[in-house]
Design goal:
Blueprint lengths: L5 H16 L15 E4 L2 E4 L4 E7 L2 E6 L5 H10 L7 E3 L2 E5 L5 H35 L5 H34 L2
Antiparallel strand pairs: 1-2, 3-4, 4-6, 5-6
Helix pairs in contact: 1-3, 1-4, 3-4
InterPro entries: Ribosome_recyc_fac, Ribosome_recyc_fac_dom, RRF_sf
Family: Belongs to the RRF family.
Keywords: Coiled coil, Protein biosynthesis
Length: 178
């Protein structure tokens, strides 16, 4: 029974991982810009679809746009994304220099991480409640087996919540480390 709900639990964890990867830590990482939407070729594309993104050092994000005609659109998208960084265009390359984060910005990012963690916990709880309903409505099995399944479910939920906490602690350390 639990196996049917494992993918839903994993989706909550994967979503949290994606959300956390986009939160600024003061370190340059491609995840900060890879999903910025760029208006090119008549539609919106994520930046990672129109340029290669790298981090030559811990304070610089560099994008090499594959099509020269898209340079202006990429530059505009980066400005519109309000990342707090100004793009520097150099031929086919665009660089973003990460400014030092203030203590206030770091605290704000830590609060954002805590909000994302709470959203993930809520998602896990919702999946747990759905699973509990299915288990309690099962017919043809005894009460002992239902309790056994509920115990396995609670143990699995506890593991997922611990995984969420570990992800949050790691991200907070990244943010608060100067």
């Amino acid at each position: 029974m639990l196996d049917t709900f494992k993918p839903q639990f994993q989706r909550a964890i994967d979503h949290l991982n994606q959300e956390l990867s986009g939160i600024r830590t003061g370190q340059a990482t491609p995840a900060i810009v890879e999903n910025v939407m760029v208006d090119v070729y008549g539609s919106k594309q994520p930046l990672k679809a129109v340029a290669s993104i790298s981090t030559p050092d811990s304070k610089t994000i560099q994008m090499e746009v594959w099509d020269m005609s898209a340079i202006k659109a990429v530059e505009k998208a980066l400005i519109d994304a309000s990342l707090g960084m100004n793009p520097n265009v150099d031929g086919k390359k665009i660089r973003l220099n990460m400014p030092m984060m203030t203590d206030e910005q770091r605290q704000k990012m830590v609060r954002l991480v805590k909000d994302k963690l709470e959203e993930a916990r809520i998602s896990v709880r919702q999946v747990r409640e759905d699973a509990k309903k299915v288990i309690s409505k099962q017919e043809g099995i005894g009460e002992d087996e239902k309790h056994g399944q509920l115990d396995k479910l609670e143990k699995f939920v506890k593991e997922k919540n611990e995984e969420i906490e570990v992800m949050g602690r790691k991200k907070e350390i990244e943010i608060t480390t100067i």
